[in-house]
Amino acid sequence: MSDVPPDLTWIRAAPPEATGPGPWIEIAFGEGDDGEAPVYLRETRDPDNVVTTNRRKWDAFVLGVQAGEFDHFVEGVELG
């Protein structure tokens, strides 16, 4: 995790009513506001294991989620 800035602000992707440690995904945005600015992802159970992408790819992923492009991954999965 040496190339991950130590002062990132991590945002937890969890429902507002969620309690406990998760596991949850956390996202942090690195410096910069262009498409190549870094975006960091980690899981609360293993915070030292960080995956890095860039803002352009992250934005494309979020738009795909909003458009339902990944809904087939959760077919049959029960929430709760």
TrEMBL record:
Residues 1-23 are annotated as: Disordered. It comes from the Bacteria. It holds the Pfam family DUF397. Residues 9-65 form the DUF397 domain. This is DUF397 domain-containing protein.
